[in-house]
Amino acid sequence: VPYISPLLVPTATGRASSDGHRGRVAVVGLGPAGPQWLTPEAQAELASADDLVGYETYLARVPRRRGQRRHSSENQVEAERARHALELAAGGSRVAVVSSGDPGIFAMASAVLEALGEGNGQYAGLEVRVVPGLSAMQAAAARVGAPLGHDFCVVSLSDHLKPWEIVERRLRAACEADMVLTLYNPASSTRREQLARAIEVVSEQRAPSTPLVVARAVGSEAESVTVTTLEQLESDVVDMRTLLIIGSSTTRIVPGEPRLVYTPRRYPG
Ligand code: SAH
After folding, report:
1. Closest residue by CA, ligand 1 atom 5
2. Which residues line ligand 1 (CB under 6 A)?
3. What is the pLDDT of residue 20?
4. 3-state SS, residue 206
5. Phi-psi region for residue 148, left (φ > 0), alpha (ψ -120 to 50) or beta?
6. How many angstroms separate the CA atoms of 182 and 246, rounded?
7. Which residue among 37, 100, 214 is best mutated to probe the pocket of ligand 1, counting the most ligand atoms within 8 A of its Cβ?
8. Cα 181 from Cα 194, distance rounded (Å)
9. HEC string for 92-128
10. Are 74 and 57 in contact (CB under 8 A)?
11. What is the 3-state secondary structure (H, E, C) of 175-200?
């Protein structure tokens, strides 16, 4: 029996579908790529859904099932997709909203809860759950050893949903606090300056020799993961399917090949 947070289950009962079950929405994490990182819980949730909702690239990763409906959309319309999922569930459907990686990390879970909150009781009685997934940074970190072994923080470089000044302030604060820094959404085909600027900001406080991991499409056939340094980053290879891990002052590269990286658990002083 899956755990259902009582916080997410309002008291009124939702409409029941023809075969008697209540509508529900599960926001399901697919992991960063490939079936090897899809959890059994996520698999079960996808298998039992009447409707699948999500960005078309992510839906394409879910095997087709007879009788299951698919609603794919472009990536930019998260709020709309979230409302659509809640509408379907309000009609009695079991809905799975799919996200890459973990659905709570820069992904659909927030959008669904936001839509639920803005529904002003319209969705009372719906069961809404988040089914976790492996986040891309965990898969990327594992490929090169243990760069996230000590305190770290995660910043999205996308300035679609927040002003760039905030990004810079957070990068500086992370450097000030000497935390390992993971960067999601570092660049796209049109959005290139942000990465260059971010590297500039970080380089004000971190040594040129700081280890830097460039992890692209981890877990897929196009995977490429390289260990380099802050000064040697070749940013041309960085795209939408890439994340970066920038070491702290204690992060080390293990001598030898392949290059492995770790951040010790212990901090000096
Ligand atoms: N919810 C996702 C993150 C979505 S934001 C998660 O938990 O992983 C999208 C960003 O995630 C991409 O721009 C990229 O920075 C990163 N990403 C997603 N999948 C990836 C993969 N397989 N390899 C490397 N980075 C990935």
Report:
1. 106
2. 32-33, 99-102, 105-107, 135-136, 140, 184-185, 215-219, 240-243
3. 57
4. coil
5. alpha
6. 6
7. 100
8. 15
9. CCEEEEEECECCCCCCHHHHHHHHHHHCCCCCCCCEE
10. no
11. HHCCCEEEEECCCCCCCCHHHHHHHH
CA-proximal residue: ligand 1, atom 2 (nearest)? 101
What value does the mean pLDDT take over residues 169-195?
Answer: 96
Looking from the CA of residue 215, the nearest atom of ligand 1 is: 24
**Separation of CA 78 and ligand 1 centre (Å):** 16
Distance 249 CA to ligand 1 centre (A): 25
Strand order through the sheet with 51-55: 69-73, 51-55, 94-99, 24-29, 127-131
Which tens digit of pLDDT belongs to each residue from 67-82? 999 999 876 689 999 9
First to last CA, the chain: 47
Closest to 246 measured CA to CA, from 182, 157, 151: 182
Q: From the CA of 217, how far away is ligand 1's center (Å)?
A: 8
Q: What is the pTM of this model?
A: 0.92
Kindly report the average pLDDT of the chain as a whole number: 92
Report how far ligand 1's centroid is from the alpha carbon of 19 (Å): 37
Say how far apart CA 22 and CA 124 lie, in whole Å. Answer: 12
* DSSP structural state of residue 160: S
Atom number in ligand 1 closest to CA 102: 7
